[in-house]
Amino acid sequence: MLTYFKDQKQAMIDEIIEFVRYETPSRVKVAVDALGAVMAEKFQQLGAQVTRFEQNEVGDLLWAKWNTDAPGKPILFLVHIDTVWDIGTLEDFPVRIEDGLLYGPGAVDMKGGIVVMLTALRGLIAQAQLPNRPIQVLVNTDEEIGSRHSQGLIQDIARNAALVLVMEPGTPEGALKTWRKGIATYRVHVEGRAAHAGNTPEQGINAIVELSQQILKLHALNDLKYGTSVSTTLIEGGSAGNVIPAKASAYLDTRFMHLNAMERIANEVMNLYPFTPGANVWAEKVHHRPPMEHNALMRETFERAKAIAQAHDITLREEGSGGGSDGNFTAAMGIPTLDGLGPQGDGLHARHEQVVISSLATRAALIAALLQNW
Ligand SMILES: [Zn+2]
């Protein structure tokens, strides 16, 4: 199979370029839908049944299915066609190939991963080697903004799966990601009382001073050795230079390796008490994605994949990431999940985003082997 996929190298390069030229920022629905239509057509050409889940604010979600009547639990691919890059990025960050690297916005995160998956499926189907079990792809369109619109559907569809394959990029060295931190974000609000800063400062309750104390208290929850970070990332407050501020708020980004850390932080953040008499302080949870814990199931799933890869002369290694993916949801549900199956690459969300071209064939062969042997 590896020889077959090596022969597909130019076709894979061409298809990545085709996808990158569709600029697909998560919040521009029409742009994401344009690539979604291309994806739906490609799935149909490969004989899949395609269901479209219409969305109002983000691109429509797609669910492609092969072998719907076959026995056994499905293997489910999770991919996302949105990127962090705005429309127009291609003008000053065009696609280019240099020294075996393909550069472009979204090239590795994750259009390269989508091409690897499609190539593996195409190869198996062409050689009549697609295993006789249900195989599915869920195409997400808002992963880069936290999968708020898609989380429910991902969880519903993944519930049934024997294995979830997440086509996010591997590490620069090509390792899979067997743990990912979870994320929870909050907004902390303080309400005090406005007063003239010159005439009657004693009548004011300074919301900024109160918020500052809260921020320092929350900052003390950092436990970097344990993988827990609590970061105040945005702050606003006050109304004029000569007014004791009545309002202030801060945005909090928290990350953690384990669910218990998530719960411990949530408990602190959601139960803040004012330092200043008369001030009101409260927090709202904006968003959260549970951690992909490096637990027994994760280790077992990776070991099984590693053995399958080894039998095909592919060496698999594992690492982790501080950033989340849709794999966080499925891993937290106790579904065997492999993440970072996309090509090797670097510069995610950065101006040097790149795919290592030589890794494309190996990854396609790996995907084909996993489908056949799981
Ligand atoms: Zn991604």
Explain this structure to me?
The protein is α+β, with helices and mostly antiparallel strands. It folds into two domains: 2-180 and 291-373, Aminopeptidase; 182-289, Alpha-Beta Plaits (2-Layer Sandwich), CATH 3.30.70.360. The protein has helices at 2-7, 9-20, 29-45, 89-92, 107-126, 151-158, 207-219, 259-269, 296-311, 327-332, 359-373; strands at 49-53, 61-66, 75-80, 96-98, 101-103, 135-140, 163-166, 176-180, 182-191, 195-196, 229-237, 243-244, 247-256, 280-289, 318-321, 337-339, 345-346, 354-356. The strands form five sheets. The chain has a six-stranded mixed sheet with strand order 1-2-6-3-7-16, sandwiched between helices. Strands 4-5-18-17 form a four-stranded antiparallel sheet. The longest helix is centred in the first third of the chain and has 20 residues, at 107-126. 47% of the residues are buried. The model has no long low-confidence stretch (mean pLDDT 97). It binds zinc ion. Zinc ion is lined by residues 80, 109-110, 143, 168.
Evaluate the radius of gyration.
Answer: 24 Å
Strand order of the largest sheet: 1-2-6-3-7-16
CATH class of the largest domain: Alpha Beta
Number of helices: 11
Helical content stands at: 25-40%
Distance between the termini: 17 Å
Q: Stretches where pLDDT falls below 50 for ≥5 residues?
A: none
Could you give me the name of the CATH homologous superfamily of the largest domain?
Answer: Zn peptidases
Order of helices and strands: HHHEEEHEEHEHEEEEHEEEHEHEHEEEH
How many β-strand stretches? 18
| CATH architecture descriptor text of the largest domain | 3-Layer(aba) Sandwich
CATH level 3 topology of the largest domain:
Aminopeptidase
Average pLDDT metric: 97
What number of domains? Answer: 2
Characterize the biggest β-sheet: 6 strands, mixed
Shape: elongated
Secondary-structure content class = alpha+beta
